[in-house]
Amino acid sequence: MKQERDQTHLLEMYRLMRLARSLDERMWQLNRQGKAPFVISCQGHEAAQVGAALALRAGHDWVVPYYRDLGVVLTMGMTPREVMLALMAKAEDPNSGGRQMPAHYSHRKLNIVSHSSPTGTQVPHAVGIGLAAQMRGDDIVVWTAYGEGTSSQGDVHEAMNLAGVMKLPVIFFCENNGYAISVPQRKQMGVENVADRAAGYGFPGVVVDGTNVLEVHEATMAAVERARRGDGPTLIEAKCVRLTAHSSDDNDRTYRTAEDLKAMKAQDPVVKFETYLTSEGILDDATKTKILNEIKEAVNDATKYAEAAPLPDPATVKRYVFAE
Amino acid sequence: MPVITFMEALRQALRDAMHADERVFIIGEDVVHYDSAYGVTKGFVKEFGDKRIRDMPIAEAGYAGLGIGAAMNGLRPVVEMMTTNFALLALDMIVNHAAKIHYMFGGQFTVPIVFRLPNGYGQLSATHSQAFDNYYAYIPGLKVVAPGTPYDAKGMMRAAIEDPDPVIFIEHTGIYSVKGEVPEESYTVPIGKSNLLRDGKDVTIVCYGRMTPMVQQAAEKLAEEGIDAAIVDLRTLRPLDMEPVIESFRKTNRAVIATEEWTSVGVGAEIAARLYTEGFDYIDAPIWRVGFDEVPMPYAKNLETAVVPHPESVIDAVKQVLAGKTQRIRQQ
Lengths: 324, 332
Ligand SMILES: Cc1ncc(C[n+]2csc(CCOP(=O)(O)OP(=O)(O)O)c2C)c(N)n1
Ligand SMILES: [Mg+2]
Hints:
The complex is a heterodimer of chains A (324) and B (332).
Chain A lengths: L1 H31 L13 H8 L8 E3 L5 H7 L3 H8 L34 H15 L5 E6 L6 H13 L3 E7 L2 E2 L2 E2 L20 E5 L3 H16 L5 E6 L18 H8 L3 H11 L5 H24 L16
Helix pairs in contact in A: 1-2, 1-3, 1-9, 1-10, 2-3, 2-7, 4-10, 5-6
Chain B lengths: L2 E3 H15 L3 E5 L15 H5 L4 E3 L4 H13 L3 E5 L3 H4 L3 H8 L2 H4 L9 E6 L13 H5 L5 E3 L4 H13 L4 E6 L6 E3 L13 E4 L4 E5 L3 H14 L4 E5 L2 E3 L4 H10 L2 E8 L4 H13 L8 E5 L8 H7 L3 H12 L10
Parallel strand pairs in B: 2-3, 2-4, 4-5, 5-7, 6-7, 10-11, 10-13, 13-14
Antiparallel strand pairs in B: 1-8, 6-12, 9-11
Helix pairs in contact in B: 1-8, 3-5, 9-13
Thiamine diphosphate (TPP) sits at the interface of chains A and B.
């Protein structure tokens, strides 16, 4: 019984990682076709994102993600259609109705709160969401994410300090892919592990292999328990790989060698997990084909749906400046 | 004379200054391997080495402050902010420190620093498409420049780097590719001098930065309809030089102010006020302003197009002024 449940859980992890990857790949195709002006990828971060998000209670806990977190928002319940509507800035897009950039996810019903373009500014918000919950006695955990480059921002440090002082139920999740656009980690910080900084704020910092979904999941489960017990925050640093350019506006060939990219590809978290599941006899060919077909259908459906959806009406452009 | 882009003009001035003065160095995000966010300092690391071209962590407040310290200690930093929007994170350093140190400490320290602030829009949405020209133009102690032509871009960048005071250099990304005649040799264009770009008798259009080429386009179309517009390019927002504006206004008695900003409380509001206080005797018609609709910038292309100024917006404003109509600015 337990084993069966475990297997279902593992296959769900796999499905979510694959779905994130496939949607992401489709976005790049649409970008090349001129149908999506801006794409920023989760590729290489899927294990970290799905592993972490599955430790949360979807629709109950809050997530304050950053632009790479497609795997997180899908796990929390955002649909492929909703993702594609945002990519193409259509009126019906629940993230923003075409007002915010794509990948700045926001979904009130799912307790997903968007960040804005200045990096790291969402992290203090996550702390405030945690404070409100603590004051009301709500049993929620707030999970927030950012890149290692962004961990240099004052906002991030101030937020961690605040959360440490007030023992807030916040999980700081740093997705470390070794680059801030073109700047390698060694030029961003004098430490090897972002997680080491947690000590300076009075809570645990954990380093995990961000290409290993099970390891990330376990670490996040522990952080969630700690937060729910009222023991305060945890900083988790997931070492990831960035398999694409920074965004569709970037050409990473100017600062990454072909060997670097090859080495990263060898760490592809989706492939790694697929290999693991296959070798454990959990994923057989028939199951894999079924999952992949369903995903393909979902991605096609989302693309078609979003392409056909109407643009926002310029007559509504002044809506939402103030509360209605 | 060679014809080059606005961006190439900036590049030439930066390169000339780096060669002429060892104290000049560049810091910013992605300025090394990436050749800077928009490519302005392309190739510089090869030419000047990674001591003088330095990548910074994503910590705008920190490296703005670092630049100020280095300037107080005798260097001439050029701080590239990836965009105006992200410079907001460094606003305290710029406003409370770069701008005031010389005054507050009785002239003991100068802060010869240039903050390069690319701004502009193009489907980048609310927190990535803004103009804060007025924020800086408001601050005593700062010099604020926003050239609109390649010629001025080159000359003013050189002047900014040589200036003993902190200079905010606003570069509109929308005109990086605009071309114009630019001398090969190094020269300066003085900070604090507006420029009559086109003489005319019917209306004075005041602009700067990105709006300058747009207003030039509008003026050509107006000329086809028999309307003779003068253009004054402010180039510097602080210290503001109203003389060419008033001189032209004395002839035209009508003015349109075209700035790329939310209209209320913007730079244009200051120009309008000065036209009333300094040019009161010559006013024949209500002064109109052209700017953004007063909403955060939306992402969708059609929404964005709906809220930004176009040459037609300038043309329309000119016609309203000529018809003596009053303008009502709506804040939502
Ligand atoms: C305040 C601010 N400064 C600069 C930028 C430009 N920028 C966008 S993403 C990015 C790199 C972020 O790197 P990291 O935090 O490591 O995240 P990653 O993209 O690698 O996942 C930069 C510099 C920004 N958006 N906001
Ligand atoms: Mg990174």
